[in-house]
Each structure stands twice: as C-alpha cells, then as structure tokens.
Amino acid sequence: MKKYTLFFVFLFAGMLRVSATHNIAGEITLVCTGGYTYEALITTYTNSQSNADRCDLTLDWGDGTQTVLTRFGGNMTGCGCTSPVTCGFDLTPVGYPNTQRNTYKGSHTYSGPATYTLIMIDPNRIAGIDNIQNSVNTPFVIKTVLTVNPFIGCNSTPYFTTVPLDKACVNHCFYHNPGAVDPENDSLSYSIGAVLDTLGNPMTQPTLFAMPDAPCNTTTGFPHGGGGVMTIDPVTGDLSWCSPGCQGKFNVAVFVHEWKKIGNVPVEVSVVEREMEIDVATCNNNNPVIPNLPDLCVDAGTTLNFNFQVTDPDVADLIEITAYGTAVNATPPATVSPNATGVYNAQPVNVSFNWLTNCDNVRLQPYSVVIKARDNDPQVQLLDIESFNITVVSPGPQVLTAVPSGTSMNLNWSVNPCNPTYNPLIGYKIYRKTGPSGWVPAQCETGVPAYTGFIHIGTVTGVNSTSFIDNNGGAGLTPGVNYCYRVHAYFLDAAMSYASPEACNELRREVPVISHVDVVTTGISDIIGVSWFNPIGDTLNFDTIQNPGPYQLRIYRSPGPNMSISQGTLITTLTSNTFAALPDTFTDNGLVTVSQDYSYRIAFFANNGNDSIGSSHSASSVFLQAASSDNAVTLAWSENVPWTNFLFEIYRDDPGLPVLYSLVGTTAQHTYKDSNLVNGSTYCYYVRSLGSYFNPLLPDTLYNRSQQLCAVPQDLTPPCPPQLGVNSDCFNYNNQLQWINPMNLNCGTDDVVSYNIWYTPTEGGPWQLLATVGNAADTMFTQLGLTSVAGCYAVTALDTFNNQSAYSNIVCVDNCPEYILPNVFTPDADGTNDFFIPFPFRYIESIDLKIFDRWGVLIFETTDPAIKWNGRDMTTNKLCTDGVYYYICTVNEIRLEGIVPRQISGFFHLFSKDNSGPF
Question: Of 897, 884, 879, 642, which Cα lies nearest the Cα of 790?
Fold first, then answer.
C-alpha cells in the first residue's frame, strides 16, 4: 500500500508537471493608499486550458514578509467563487483564444522608508517558448522595485493600458507599446532585457535565455532568438523589432522606470518589470502605415485639432484604429476618431484628433498619445504604432507695470489666468534686464530663458501675490538706467507659464548720473576725466522750486573698483548759483594709473550745501593687466560701473614706431590674446569700453579708456614632452633610446633645441640626469657596455628660452639574469675543469652558496658568484673524495626592482685521483 501511494504521488506530480503549462505574461503594479500602505495588483495572462489555474498567488513584499493574494478576476472555476458580480469576469484578450487574464489583490504596510523588491514566483510557465531553455520547467517570475520615502510622498507605480501579448510576422517589422501611465504624471523611461530567474535577476544568457533578436538558429535547439534588431525608445516606450527571421514564441522583459525630481535632481522611485510574449508566424501580410506625428504644444484653453491618413500596402485590408495614452485619459479627454477595438475601416482611414484643453491640463510632464493601427489579415494581424507628446502650457500674467519710487521700482501684475486644480500655482518669478529685449516668446517657450539677458531677481508665493519692490537687493537701483521686467507663474510640478509682457521704466532723475571715468594720460602726473549727467529739473524729477540753490556737486574718490554710497575721499566741491549752470565734468590730476584703478561718485546738494539730495552710483576706471607668453600677450581688464559695457576695443602701440595707438581687436569679453608678436619686443596697450544706460534720454554709447600698459612677449611655455621608446639588448649589455621630436607631434611646439635624458636604476627611484643631447635633430642615444641594463628612462625637451618640457612617457626595461652551475667537475690538477665554477653568468650581484657531502656535512661556502672551488674541504683543506655532492644557493639577481634573491639547489659529481678525503 505504501509503495502504491508513493507511486501515485510521483505519478500525479509528473502529470501536473507535464500538463501544467500555465503562465504566459504578467506584471506587478502598486497603488499607495496612504502613508506606507500599498495595494498590490498582480496581473497574469495564462493558458485557460491548463490544469494549473491559480486561485491565489504568494507575493514577497521585499521586507521579509509574504502574503497570499486571492484572485478576484479571471476564470473562477474551482476557486469557490462563480458569480461574475462578486468575482469579476473572465477576460479573453482579442485575438488570443484559450488565454485568460487573472488579477490578484492584496494590501501591505511597510515599517519605514527603504527600497523594496517585490517578487512573485509561479513554478508553471507555458511550454515551447523558443528563447527560454526548457520553458515548461522554468518558473515564471515577475518583480517590481519600489522606493518608499516621505520626501516623494504617497507614490503609486505606473500601470498599463495594453496587454503584454502580441503577434508578428516573419520578415516584417513588429511594433508594440506597453501603454504605461503614471497616476502622478511622473516621468517614465523604458528599457528591455532578459526575463528573470527565481532570485529576481536576469536569466543567464545565452545558456538559459536568448534575447528575441539573438540569431535565429533553430538547429542548435533552445534557447534561440528570432534574429533582426529589437529596440525600445527610452522616452516613448515604442518597441520595434525589425525584423524577426523565424517563427516561434519569444518572451522579453519590458522595464518601466518611474522618476521624480527631489531637489531638482531626477530620482528613480520605481521599476515595474513586465514580461510579455510575442508570437511570430509565417504570413503573407504587410504592416499598416501611420504617418510621422510630431510632438506638439498647445496653450491651455485652446483647441488642438488635426487630421491624418492611415493606409496599408495591402489595399484590400481593413484597418482598426485605437488610441490610448494620458491625453486620451485626461479631463476633458482628447478624442481620436475612429477609435474602436474590433471595428475595421476601409482604406484610406481618415483619422481626426481633437482636444479642447483647459487650465486643469497644465503640467510639466507632456501628455502621451499612442495611435495603433491594426489590419484584419485572417492569419496574423500586423500593426503600426505612432507615439507623440502634447505639452499644455499656461498663459502668463497679461498685465505688468513698473513705477519708480526713490531708488526702487514698484512692480504690479495681473493674476495668472490659470491655476490648475491638481497642479496649483505656487507663485511668480520676477526677472530684470537693462534696456528693452525685443524678445517674443516662441510657441511653448515658457519662463524667461537665460539667453534673453534677463536675470532672476525675486520670487513671490501665492496666487494673489502680484507685486514686488525691486531695490537691487537693498543697494538701490541706478538713476538713468532703463530697467525692463518680465514675470511668469510657476506651478507645483515646476511647470512655468509664458512670460508676461515686458514693462520698462527708469528712476526719477533727481541725482547725477555718472557716465565717464576715462583715463586720459598714463605716465607722469596721470589724468582721469570724470563726467556725469546732471538731474533733470522738472516736477517729475528734481523740483528746483522746492529745492533752491546755490547747488553743490561734491566729487568723491576711492582707490580700487568697489566704492559704496558712503565711501570715498572728498577731492573737490563744485558750486553753482543756478541749476542750469551746474558743471558736468571734472579733471582729476596727479594720479598713478599704471598700477591703480580709481572709483568716483558725485553727491548732489541744494540750499547752499545744507540739503542732501542724493548721490550717483560709483563708477571705476577700466583697469588693464597683461601676461606675457610665447609670441603673445594676454590682456585682462575689469571695471565696476552702473551702466552696461557691451564691447571693448583693444589698441596697441607697436615697438620702433612713434607713439601711435591703432585698433587691433574687439571683444565682448574681458580678455583678449594678442598673438603673432615678436619675443623680446615691447608692446603697449589700452582698452576702450563701449557702454550704455540703454536710456533714450541719454547718449547711446559711453566711451571710457583704461590706463596704458606695456608688456614684453617671452616664451614661458615649455615644449610638449617627447615620445620615447627603448630597445634593450639584454644579452649584449646595451640600451638604445629613440624618441620623437615634439615638433613632429602636432602639439604646437616649434622651437626644440636640445634634450635631457633621465635615468633611474629602479622603478620609482629618483631621476638622475644621464646625458644632454644638444642637437634637436638627434633623437637617438645608446648606452654600451653596461653592467646592468635594468632601469627606467625618460626624456625632456628644451626650447630656445631653456623652458623644459614635462617628462616623456617613462619606459622601464629589466635585466635577464642567468646563473647555472655544472653537474660535474674534476679537481685533478690536469688544467681542465679543475675548479667548480658556474657557466658564464650575467647580472648577478652576489650569491650565498653552501656545498654538502652525502651526510649533510658542510664542505664549502662562498658569496663570490665566480665560486672557484678547488674541491677541497674548507676545514681540512683535503681534496674531497669522488662522489655526489649537494648544494643550496641564494642567487642575488640585479633586477629593475632592486636586488632580488632566487633560490636554486642541486647536486654534482666530483671526480679526482686523490681519494684521501673524508668521503
């Protein structure tokens, strides 16, 4: 009875294993229900004719716990639940008879933040999958990686809107899109790879698994691929396989990666692995063709509509059009017509797309649209897929005003037209630029890009926070400057609206506007000319009735480029009884401009100096510096001025000519390299700046000169290092070095005159100057008669100014030591072989040799590599008797790393006529 029972158990297990072909495809998705609690949904696609119908599945949550999840959808036969109302209903995907979808749900609460790997393992997979070794006995494994973190909130994984089953034809391109949608509108990316083993790792290739596009070699058995090239677009998820070359069933893992921004850094927060199956058959059919549909942008509140045609090379085929994606699922949804599963349309199919957007559609992440066209071929229905994205952009504030107040500008704007319900407006960002920009935002160009010249000066939060005071960070704005502003809204997900219209204005002109700090002369008793624009005398700017004269202009000076509104030494006071007669220039004498820059400001007083009206901003002279190099001088300059310098002119006085400066270059930068000069000659320079307040009431261009500065070009640039090679002749005791002249390396070196050769006997040791080669054309050096060829070499090149290059590549060579002892010698005084000596040896520093008789008695020892033993006992001086003698020897070899000991041992025969020894 026991034997029968045991046989029955094994027989049943065998029957289950043979007939339990079951899993085809599936995935695990998760919905966050609050805090650290998640609801898992396992979806599997199985063979409905299999005995292995699962009423429940076990899910490993990745934290050491497991839960049995019961099925609530699919075929309920035998699972204790038969009512479609309470259990759901069987879903057979269109075109896949004998296939059912099963769904299993379960909830779990994690203990805290971490990254968890959820895995479901089912022992039964369908048979006959070509790219999986013995697929029927290979467990079916799906997994999802989830990051639980309070910084990313209650996050759900992406889910899928298409089934992971598809069909393809031999020699025809195959297209598929998983139709992934993220509930939080996070960014998604896609990849493909091997299906998983029971540890959740990719199966071993190529022994256990082959990618579907692996070579189509059916003669080698399983696993094998179908040939062609399979790729997936990492952005859209469009999978293409062009083209499978043999028929069969092929599985592949599609990975959907979910990304959130944490602190403006993209962070991967989940990865859903979906295993799908592609059934490739031989058929006489062609794919439908959808035209290329570009990514689009639409303003919220407007309608996006367009039409396109879908055709098929097989003109008799009818075409089914379906559409999916986040735009199709939006509120209100985008509509595609026709769009119906199982409805086939005659060619050409005229497809219309229409979407009436609103403010609730505004978000940073584009909306996806996937159009799928499938023909009605009776064998295998082929398809084409076209994906495109739609970005919905919010209009910006429609009105912006800028009103001056003292040294500030008061900005006000209208409330932004859009404040999405699920992506609320957070606030507004404010930008400033000197002078009008003329910028008109392009379609979908949101925010204020840096290339426009605007700089971000402030942010306010709140939908109704529609004002901002620009006081230049507390430093005050500059009179005379035409300030222009833009504002845009920003939203919870970092989306930005279009920029507002541009608003420009300037402060009231009630204080002087400094315009020139011009170095007139450099040398003896240097001069700087200072100029300014006086206030405007009217009721909108400076009211001369309320502020009577006499008037004073007090000129302050400070060394260096930085001077605050309260700094500086008063150097002169200019007085005028009338406002109209106020001076606007001053000449400052007795300066030293060659080594010092100066800043100036002008303070304005009324009522005979008793009433302080205010001060101009400070402005510094342009200060020039020069650095000499080989046949060149590099100029650099700096200045601190309240206007904007937009161009610099470089003037040079050449050596040997009368003092006559000429324009040699222009730049918008603060550096300039003057090349092709003569080393050792003196060149003098000054820089003239061109600037503007961009104010139509002021001159268009302001010119200011730097001090004059002279420099002498000289070669301070070392040559490039040579390229070295070493040919070592170990047997003949010589090393030959050969290198490439840097002038032949196309590295900019043109004046090599000699070389230094460097050597160190050990690797990493200090360099020693071995030799100098005085001819640049001589690129070879040979060392002959060396006692050791071991060592490292490098070469440096020297130019006409004795600049030395870096070391060349270091080349190290080693000795080839040899030390061999004979196996016989005859100390019989016949003049032949009378001494025990080694064969000719090389590169040996010393030895430690000990010779023993057959009883282990020490007979002889030496440290001399030549040995020269005469066969006599070192204690008795008697000739040793004939016989076998043994030796051990430490041979100290001269090597690159130093003295390296090597152990040798052996024996030899001694033959002599004198047998009076101790043997």
Answer: 897
Q: Which residues contact 351 (CB under 8 A, 6 or more apart)?
A: 307, 308, 309, 310, 321, 336, 337, 338, 371
Q: Which CATH number is 363's domain given?
A: 2.60.40.10
Number of domains comprising the chain = 7
Distance, CA of 219 to CA of 662 (rounded, Å): 82
Alpha helical stretches, state H, 374-532: none
CA-CA distance, 517 to 596, in Å (whole number)? 13
Which tokens belong to 391?
């970005």
Eight-class DSSP state of 366 = P
Amino acid identity, position 498: Y
Dihedral of the CA atoms 492, 495, 501, 506 (nearest 10)? 70
> In angstroms, what CA-CA distances link 622 with 560, 594, 835?
10, 11, 90
By three-state DSSP, how is residue 472 classified? helix
DSSP annotation of 136 reads G
Please give the backbone phi and psi of residue 451, each rounded to the nearest 5 degrees, phi first.
-65, -15
Gyration radius from the chain CA atoms: 45
Flag whether 919 is in a domain.
no
Plot region of 748 (φ>0 → left; ψ -120 to 50 → alpha; else → beta):
left
Q: Rounded to the nearest 5 degrees, what angle is found at the Cα of 373, between the Cα atoms of 275 and 335?
A: 100
Amino acid making up residue 811: V
What is the residue whose two structure tokens read 């996806």?
368
660, exposed or middle or buried, with CB in 10 Å at 0-12, 13-18, 19+? exposed
- Residue 520: phi, psi to the nearest 5? -85, -45
SS3 of 361, please? helix
Q: What is the pLDDT of residues 611-622, one digit of tens each?
A: 999 999 999 999
Report pTM.
Answer: 0.66
Quick one: pLDDT at residue 918?
40
> What letter represents residue 242's amino acid?
C
pLDDT, mean of residues 444-464: 97
User: Do 677 and 778 sit in the same domain of this protein?
Assistant: no
The predicted-structure confidence for 259-305, as pLDDT tens digits, reads as follows: 998 877 899 999 999 999 999 999 989 999 999 999 999 999 999 99
Its domain, for residue 741, covers 723-813
What residues are paired with 317 via a beta bridge? none
Query: For residues 664 and 666, what is the distance between their CA atoms, to the nearest angstrom?
Result: 7
